[in-house]
Fold this sequence. Notes:
By secondary structure, the chain is an alpha+beta fold. It has two domains: 72 residues; 114 residues, no CATH class. 48% of the residues lie in helices and 13% in strands. The chain has a two-stranded antiparallel ribbon. Strands 3-4 form a two-stranded antiparallel ribbon. A two-stranded antiparallel sheet has the order 5-6. The longest helix is centred in the first third of the chain and has 54 residues. The protein is elongated, with a radius of gyration of 37 Å.
Amino acid sequence: MGDSTGPSSSVASLACDSPRGRNGHPGRTALVASSATGRPGMIVVAIIVLTCAVVMVFCAVDQRRRRVAERNWRTSMEPLLRNSSGYPADWQRRRALVWIRAHGRCELCLRRIGRLSCGHDEIWVLPPEEHLLFGAQVHHIQHRLRGGDHSMENLRLICDQCHAAEHPGNQNLRELAAASRAKASRRRGHRWGTATSGGVTQRRRWAH
């Protein structure tokens, strides 16, 4: 028998170590190179999958926290404070929720009014006393002096003009409605003034 360490054995060893081994199959070097280049890609995929899993868990926990806060408010705080003698501690949250329920429209004249300083879901993670609604009023359908409460069913979204009409004796609301009307007129490129004709003074709108 010949020596196994002869030339034929050396050729076979070289063939196995070459990029293409015997019978055209990948050699040892090719397999090692393929494995080395595949590892970084697998690590990147694993990191992406892990990141997505962490984000999903965080979102689920956050959504659960908001749902719990909403349920606690609706079942405990809201009924407890709806009969407060003055404005309740969560009055600003109630105003924001009324605006969302009315889709940002005055419930009397249907004009778009107001804006929120936060997203709808963020209401439940903010303090209930934080001012969130701007440019709109919330009106008690049954007035407080007539036994009305602060329940959501007794509240509706209303613009400054309609609110002043609901309380004709309230000078503050009249002034607020006048300021809102003047601001809207300036936005349209007009101003309000008075003119006297035939001894009668009338309010007129003048173009700039």
